[in-house]
Queue: 2 jobs
Job 1
Amino acid sequence: MTDQTTVAQSPAGAAEPAPPPAKGAKDTRVDARPKNNRAWWLVLPVVVSVAFTAVIPLMTVVNYSVQDVFSPSERIFVGLEWFREIARDPEVRGAFVRTLLFSAQVLLIEIPLGVAIAVAMPRRGVSVSVALVLVALPLLIPWNVVGTIWQIFARGDIGLGGWAINNVLGVNFNYTLDSTDAWLTVLVMDVWHWTPLVALLAYAGLRSIPQPYFQAAQIDGASAWATFRHIQLPRLRGVLTIAILLRFMDSFMIYTEPFVVTGGGPGNATSFLSILLSKIAVGQFDLGPAGAFSLLYFLFVQVLCYVFFTVLTKSGR
Amino acid sequence: MRRLPWARTVFWLYVATLMLPILWMFGMSIRPNEDILGSFSLIPERVTFDNYATFFGETSWYSSYLNSIIYTSLNAVMSLIVALPAAYAFSRFRFAGDKHLFFWLLTNRMAPPAVFLLPFFQIYQSVGLFDTHLGVAIAHMLFNVPLAVWILEGFMSGIPREIDETAAIDGYSLPRFFIRIFLPMIRSAIGVTAFFCFMFSWVELLIARTITSVNAKPIAASMTRTVSAAGVDWGLLATAGVLTIVPGAIVIWFVRNYIAKGFAMGRV
């Protein structure tokens, strides 16, 4: 029993943020771990569950992508024909450029904005709890409800946002007719929806910076900007890597919100890759092209994520 | 630490802007439909709770609300059970292919959900999981298990290995050590992870809608019912919207203290 109390005391110490590892310290930690192939038994449940939810479905998609399916009994092997067709399809290319542009805009707006909000967030007192809960609230709203909120809010006749732009600013704004307005609505909606995630991650990163860093900066007479640039920002590398990756992935796969607000329109102004894909897969039930489309889509997200990850983690060393 | 003098004001202005669309939807849920479409007014002229009465008066509405809560909770529990030992393995041991496996797990988080719609529909139907809570909970493990492993691994790596070794010397077997000592130590990590699983499962609609029809239909899918031949029932739509925010708000209130502390320890 005495052993238990000694061990049980350590949680209090463990609840403190771990001291920041020095450069290269991570590698020594990796080396210190014992090699034990029986650890595979511990990861087996994960492998099985992911196999059922991801690998088997993905294999089905691969199967579709190389066949022309007329009916369950009638299929012809077509090789890479669908891949060629999808890669040449002007509609797919248009959606690809649109999605890429959207992701770029999302990252350029949300990352700096999120960091700024995190810096401005209260640090102590009851206001911390209130701020955290309110900032996190948009993240907990089902995605189609987010769409519904903005569908209502941005309407010129019944929504506060659309009404204010039309009647207070005097600009003619209608997201169901004008493609620029539709694009802006979807972009503003995404910024509203997801900047809180970046802000929370950055806030957590800022909180983990030990106080002596700031005291040292104060003694040196560093300006607020210099403190941010040379102490806070470098410390945020880890959380910002995650924020950028998550925001890239999710904005590149965005479906529900624009589908609810604009349905991809007007015309195809907000028809992103996922909207086009589900139109082909579920709407037209073209299994072959949809399968090939899915795989190319998946591959692109993976490659870009890998590039981001490598660049972001290597550039600091 | 130092803060700029106007930071506080700017921050609360941002929060106010953030709340505006939500408050607007709430305002719409307590107006009669004629007022919504009739004349534009900032403050509701007539306040009514008819929409809420409709929502809780109809089985199909509140049962789909319960459906969402059931499969979301189920998913959080299952994801944690599966992810905890795996995260421990990744943080404590080296084994053949560990790095590849870790990255491969993460790549599943990168799969566009639209990719999985067709196969999910067919597979879940053929194995009898179609339109069940368990089916949706399993399907959502697609993106929650990799995330849970990722977050938990970060937390666990922050706990010194000496604790494991001390416990082993004291005669604790691995399962007993894990349950009696290790799990209580990473309470906050489990809280944060459960929160993320809950969040991502609660907000997802595309997959949940595809593999359900009646019995496990999520609340979010029921909302499309407000569109009928007579047009959109904006008041009822807004009411359902407001009610879907409530569980999330409750969960986040409980984990609010873990968020900052927990994030900082973990890799997220």
Note: Strands of chain A lie at 67-71, 74-77.
Job 2
Amino acid sequence: MTESTISKSYKRNEDPRLLTGNGNYIDDIEIPGMLHVAIKRSDYAHAKINKIDTEEAKKMPGVVAVYTAEDLGDYWRPGPLQVPPPTVIKGSIFHARPLECIAKNKIRFSGEPVAVVVAESRYIAEDALDYIYLDIEPLEYVGDLEKSLDPGAPLIHEDLESNLSADVRQEVGSWEKAVAEADLVVKKRIVTKHVAGGAIENRGIVIQWDDSFKVLNVWATTQGPVPMRNSIAKYLGLMENQVRVMNPDIGGGFGPKIMSSQIDDVVIPWIAMKLKKPIKWVEDRRENFLGTTSERDQVHYAEIALKKDGTILGVKDEFYHNTGAYNPYGMTVPLNTQTHVISNYNIPNYFTRIIMVFTNQMVVTPVRGAGRSHGIFVMERLLDAAAKELGMDPIEIRRKNILPPESMPFRTGVIGQDFVESVLDSGDYPGALEKTLEAIEYEKFKKEIQPKLRAEGKHKGIGVIMFTEGTAVGPYEGAKVMVGVTGKVNVVCAYSNQGQGHYTTFAQVAANQLGVDIKDIEVVIGDTGQWQWGVGAFASRGMTLVGTAIHNAAVKVREKALNLASKILETPKEELELADGVVRIADLPEKFISLGELAMRANPTRGTVEEGMEPGLEAASYYGPPHGATGYGCLGLILDVDPETAKVKIERLVIADDCGTNINPMIVDGQIHGGLQMGIGEAFYENLVYDDYGQLVTASFMDYLFPQATDMPAKFEIKHIVTPSPLNPLGIKGIGEAGAICVPACFMQALEDAFEGMDLDITDSFMSPGKLYHYVQKAKGA
Amino acid sequence: MKIEGTHVFNGPREDVWDMFYDPNVLASALPGAQKMEMVKEDEYKFDMNVRVGPVSGAFTGEMQLENVVKPDSLTLKGGGKGAPGFLNGIGNVKFKEQEDNTTLMEYEGEVNIGGALASVGQRMIDSVAKSMIRTGFETLDKALAARLAAKETGAEAVEFKAPTEAQFAKEVAKDMVKMENWSAETKLVLYIVPVIAVIILLAFILKSCGA
């Protein structure tokens, strides 16, 4: 019997290559005669452009060309909306203002591109930027989410009546009814803060126009090669097969690399075709901070209605969402917030409203978490506030309202980022809570350890919160599986890999059907020349969607191999098995035919074939779920806080998580580790800060602080729960964002617990040591 | 951002005001100043080099003086831009005679800094600006002392030594170390005061060039 390759921690196929320095990243690509681009970006956050003078820059030796929006002529136009608005939600307003990839009449954020220099080297191109002169009229900066809608606020898009970008309301049950029946309504103003994706490798693109074959070769760090290919083809009037978008190795994505129709993939291909020269652009770190997308900026006015015993009757959440200067990514982020506010608990009445506003800040698109962490933060903070008002233990109020396993699948009634109702497909939510409480020894800590520490004047606090992780949304992904004449297997897709381990996990899925060693499976990811269809790497959907498509394709290839072998071996296929790279008679293993030989025979070169025959040991498949698969979990933290220095040490971190079947448990753990590090960063280290004039004052790693290895707890204690998703044959749910979305809510609960009696009342998702110090001082004074 | 600050000059108001109109004194008090010219009455253009940590480059700017009430007060508006970014500001300066024959200079205003100067230089700008203002005032204090001494002896020549670029760099380094222990509020004030002061000093130089 063939051994299963699923749920095994294989070491990663790609690691020997990457760890020995043999990866091929965007900046490693060199083409003879290649020119280099540097982008002139606006220092001003909001201004009218009178004139951009590029004459002096053009005269510099080594400068080949300089382009502004004016120079692009008719080619200049605002990009397409990468994500359309949710028309399915009745009464919603959405003012589409897609990205203007290079500013023409107006500058709307500091860092917005205004000109492109093409030169013989990057050094020359960078120097030439200093000789481009902007004649502009500065306009008043709009940065405050709430004030952006004040009458008389300067307009970011003058053709609109206000800076309102979207207004979307959803209601399940009746909030008014909940209030009427409630014993208590708790209100909070809750703020979530702006963080960066901060991938170790910035964005980049290399373009080569092959004028003889009329093909545009594009190497790009994009998370969505097919949408980028389609955008480029449409802009340039080319057929899809004339544009080949390829991912080199990519050093992290975390969301912002999903964006296409930006200056790099709109303007640089146009220049490359015009000059008939290969061109490279690699973003520098400051550009990445200023001009690449980011998110998490929301202001919530949230209310929770309860009975005296802690039963939730309803939740109301009206929130401002900062979309930045444009809204090319539709409403993905705030819709995720709407679905994630209520998703762990039984909340019969829910009113939620997104007020999305334009500001003079960088464009907002998802960063690992994409609205989920904000929703979780709001709900968990409301529960903590309600527990305090009711004199309940924070765990008790959660136990009281948590969705029981028998309620699954649970229809939430709220439309999510995939424009269908969010459905919690499976899981044991109370199980995750209890498992975490047990592992972190909650009772013991509260009843025995903490009182002793308090008596000694020490400030250690515990936090335990629940989260769901909406993952694996549609619309679809596809893949092709092919056995080659050598017997090795090719898995091809146009997804995108930024370090998730797909070269291993996708191979595991194919190997499981084909009986070959996972090292004999070559996975091609992100090459539109080899595979034409797909959407991209976002919403923790790769393993579930591409994995399922690979599984389905591999099942078809297996059938093809069995049918062909059955004829050749003159044995019924039920008596055959695939193992060790051959198809053999199960009871007579010495009688076999290799997969390579079968592949050769699957492409007959003479004679005739049966009607309907499809050549090759090859099959393609597509998979699109009816709705996303929802992972969930519970996080527990014990924090040791020094009240004098406000330094925080994470003494313990326990996370229980259910992402369905773990294809490779080691890689699942890695995703959780990386996510938690981002979550810890969001809670205590990382914050993008604009000053009062729209200048980003944290545009380097000196001022934008990443947590380091030494800031991590000694151990991430991970408790797995496996409830296979009923939505797909392998039972997979996503795991990419779990760790990144749960930390701030738990961190703040634990901080409050560390200073119990002081009433810190933290309603902000970011707490630096400096801020914590002020909170403690303020609480002491109160 | 609102700003305010004071400096006490050890001399009478008339002498302080006059000193500010000596372009030789003021140019030497300003590290990085290259060139200034009067466009018209109370309106000037200047070139200067700015270096804040990793951010450096040439600045060109303009400045206007308004509400000039000699030797009491003036308002200045100005701004500059260059490769490292831009800077705009408005400031009000007052000179007050004090009983002990010293002069209190009071300044308050608002400054807006943009570009790489703000986004990358942020961490260093406090220290650099603080050093600029401190060394600037130190130079002016010495210059004033020299002028007063010369006045007393009736000598014409005024001798004083302006800090070199190397001395200035050393001062910046010293200040950056000291800054570690300062409160956020102190840093905030220091961040703006020097910038305004630089503009003020430039304005005076220009004014005096014109006169």
Note: The interface with chain B takes residues 43-45, 110, 129-130, 138, 286, 289-290, 691-693, 695-700, 702-703, 770 of chain A (CB under 8 Å).
